[in-house]
Amino acid sequence: MYKEEGEKMKDKYGREIDYLRISLTDKCNLRCAYCMEKDHNDFIHNDNLMTLDEILRVVKECASIGIKKVRLTGGEPLVREGIVDLIKNINKIPEIEEICLTTNGILLGDKVKELSENGLKRVNISLDTLKEDRFKEITRIGTLDKVLYSIEKCLENNVKVKINTVTLEDFNKDEILDLIDLACKNPIDLRFIELMPIGEGKKFKCVTNSEILEIIKKEKKVLSDGKTLRLNGPAKYISIEGFKGKIGFISAMSDCFCEDCNRIRVTPEGFMKQCLHWKYGINLRDKMRNGISDEDLREIIKKSIYEKPEKHNFKMKEKDEDKRFMYEIGG
Predict the structure, then answer these.
(1) What is the CATH superfamily name and number for domain 19-329?
(2) In the chain, where are the structural domains located?
(3) Of 47, 169, 179, 198, which is least packed with CB atoms within 10 Å of its CB?
(4) Strands 263-266, 236-238: parallel, antiparallel or unpaired by DSSP?
């Protein structure tokens, strides 16, 4: 039923699971309107977060059963103390081929050189607008220049960059062409992400990726006859004539990609989630603090991966839905 020595780790639907996303904290230095309430300040107590040693132990056991790629998320992962040492230690695990980070970019510019020197290979940076007033409106307390500076410093330090953009009706739909120009002038990929109905995200109406693609095709020459290509992950990509980077579309709502899902998630409190949407999983932190052996920890991780659900079912079975906010789960 589970992975044998030398085999790839697969769930019961035959999908190879080789990608681990770990949220380091639910804390964030922004209050993005579709993610967190404006005055929210009730975060997980430090004692309830996985320690860095516990995180490293989880990564080691996951690596031993087939995980090759690790992404650190939040909240905002760069507000977690000790992140440089954590990346350094994860980088020492032979089976881990790539360490990535998802960030809002506010703190990244001054840290990316050290992070890169210790093993960070890629970053995903959230950026929904190139207008300072809109940036302040959507993030409530952010500064656009810091994010643009972080993108520049990543490129200087050979850290590969993807920009994640959420496009909302009556907010930034008119900036689509301006945003994709970032991928024209720089070797970065820009991905449009359909907002998922999780937490505060339920209050907003997103622009579908099919609409965005039509806007782009009217103004730009899309290569490969406008066909989209799915690479290693949930995004489908297009190439545009003259662009250094690609344009991607993550269409969780309008074009479910669950059949190709290769990931498993761990929340800041150590709860291993089989799917972003479903509430099911197992608390690895509690198991470790109760003295579980490495062998038994490895076995419960394998079982959790094997039982990963077939698809997210955002539109079905509310009783099975995870009611937490995205920053609590790990975006």
Answers:
(1) Aldolase class I (3.20.20.70)
(2) 19-329
(3) 47
(4) unpaired
Q: Looking at the predicted structure, is the pLDDT value of residue 312 above 90?
A: no
Tokens 């860095």 correspond to 52
Nearest to residue 240, comparing CAs of 228, 253, 255?
228
CA–CA dist 53, 64 (Å, integer): 17
Type of residue numbered 324: R
Helix or strand holding residue 23 (H, E): strand 19-23
Question: Rounded to whole angstroms, how far apart are CA atoms 270 and 99?
Answer: 19
CA atoms of 102 and 125, how far apart (whole Å):
6
Enumerate the known binding-site residues for GTP. 21, 71, 102, 162, 263-265
3-state class (DSSP) for residue 17: coil
99, amino acid identity: I
Q: State the binding site for S-adenosyl-L-methionine.
A: 34, 75, 126, 196
> CA separation (Å) from 127 to 89, 181, 193, 269?
29, 13, 11, 27
Q: Give pLDDT, residue 63.
A: 98
CA–CA dist 2, 11 (Å, integer): 8
Q: Which two tokens stand for residue 200?
A: 């505060």
> Which residues lie closer than 8 Å to 316 by C-beta, 6 or more apart?
none
Arithmetic mean of pLDDT, 116-131: 98
What is the β-pairing status of strands 247-250 and 120-126? unpaired
Number of Cβ within 10 Å of residue 194's Cβ equals 19
- The single-letter DSSP state of residue 50 is P
Whether omega before 75 lies within 30 degrees of 0, making that bond cis, reads yes
Known binding residues are 21, 28, 32, 34-35, 71, 75, 102, 126, 162, 196, 258, 261, 263-265, 275
Specify whether the CB–CB gap between 45 and 276 falls below 8 A: no
Tell me if 67 sits within 8 A of 104, measured CB to CB: no
Q: Are 108 and 123 in contact (CB under 8 A)?
A: yes
Q: What is the pLDDT of residue 232?
A: 62
Q: Cα–chain-centroid distance for residue 264?
A: 11
Which pLDDT tens digit goes with each residue over 188-206? 999 999 987 777 777 888 8
